[in-house]
Amino acid sequence: MAKTEMKKKRKIDIMAEMPERLSSGHRLCAGCGASIAARQILRGTTDPVVISCATGCLEVASTIYPYTAWEVPFIHNAFENSAATISGVEAAFRSLKKQGKIPKNKKIKFVAFGGDGGTYDIGIQSLSGALERGHDFVYVCYDNEAYMNTGIQRSSATPFGAFTNTSPAGSCSFGKSQFRKDLTMICAAHHIPYAAQASIGYWQDLVKKAEKALAVEGPAFLLVLAPCPRGWRFPMEKTVEIGKLAVDTCFWPLYEIENGVFKLTKKIPDKKKKPITEWLKSQGRFKHLFEECNENVIEEIQQKIDEDWQRYLKTNGDKIF
Amino acid sequence: MKLMTWQEIPIGGLILEAGNAKKFLTGDWRSQRPILDEEKCINCLTCFMVCPDGSIVLKDGKMSGFNYDYCKGCGICAYECPVKCITMKPEEDFR
User: Fold this and answer.
1) How many other CB atoms are found less than 10 A from the CB of residue A306?
2) CATH architecture for segment(s) B25-94
3) Contacts of B69 in chain A (CB under 8 A)
4) SS3 assignment, position A169
5) By the number of CB atoms within 10 A of the CB, which of A7, A141, A229, A306 ranks highest?
6) ipTM exceeding the 0.95 mark
7) Domain locations in chain B?
């Protein structure tokens, strides 16, 4: 009897019973992808959690004085040093354990959150340092592909061809003219035990990766696509749908690198692989690409995605770092 | 909703309570209200997992409605629902 009852419990039921660590009443926009990511990721462990957060949408909107939406210890320091801050906390925790001031078997998970601006651009040196020193923490980058908090400025996560206020589209420009950098690979190249790329579109995959990242000893890195209705120009109910579409068009492949071994966690069969135009036309920030003069830009994007996807398929299962 | 006054703020500007954002009701941002059709609902809890505001109310692990104090009316739950048992209705209809 007990066994059948155990079987009945779905993964989502277990997730529903987990404590809510980001409370309601935070002031992120309606339909925000970042809060979905934070809620899902923090369900990855039952241990106590300490969070540090880089300046960004998540930090600004969840801690508007005199309120805080965090049910767990939370530190905000500055834009560039989320990873450095959490590594200091983790080192202090280890030291107190050694001194006998904290019981040896006490377990705390350390999580750093950062947006793409605070991770790809401003915080990358402190992140790189913390990964190299091997602190036991998880760095989560919720990637909304521009500086959304300050009003849509380009970051190095902004995709090729996207409109932002600092890479505007017009008669002389088709939006951002550089490809985004591959941050998951950069982090994995630090020879950390776990690095993964996920999307809020597929929560099962994201939660599984969060569980793995939180369980692993040593640094772990998670890059989560968090669509932004305001900055990407799409209706707010489509946040999760767009997170799925990014994966289905292979714009955002879901993979993990565990102890240097690369593995695609969602293989898109060739028949089901959608053309990139579906992803592009779902968002207003790519609207200008459908004008006649910009046809070659779409071709270029598709070509780059196909090349990358072929490379991922080829290296699937290989030890790459 | 009444905001805290300066007399009520603790000395040193400290926040003494975790998660006190719950006192800030974001429900008044809403222009579309989600309505649940309980007969159609299959309790897959997809809405719970994708809600950005934690506004899905569960009773004994089952979907039982929305917390309109915090729901911002984004409509992700209605859009993602596999059986379409959530409909978005204009907020004016309830005034």
Assistant:
1) 13
2) 2-Layer Sandwich (3.30)
3) 24
4) strand
5) A141
6) no
7) 25-94
Chain A hits for B63, CB-CB cut-off 8 Å, are none
What local confidence, expressed as pLDDT, does residue B5 receive? Answer: 85
Of A16, A66, A67, the CB nearest to B48: A16
Q: What is the pTM of this model?
A: 0.94
Residue B12 gets which letter from DSSP?
G
Beta strands in chain A (DSSP E): 49-53, 74-76, 109-115, 138-143, 194-199, 220-225, 255-258, 261-264
**CATH tag for A21-315 (out of 3.20.20.140, 3.30.460.10, 3.60.150.10, 3.40.50.970):** 3.40.50.970
Considering only CB atoms, which residues of chain A are within 8 Å of chain B?
12-13, 15-17, 20, 22-33, 35-36, 39-40, 62, 64-72, 200, 203, 229, 236-241
- Condensed to tens digits (0 to 9), the pLDDT of residues B15-58 reads 999 999 999 999 999 999 999 999 999 999 999 999 999 999 99
If you measure CA to CA, which chain B residue comes closest to A16?
B61
Instruction: Tell me the nearest-neighbour CA distance from A241 into chain B, angstroms.
Output: 8
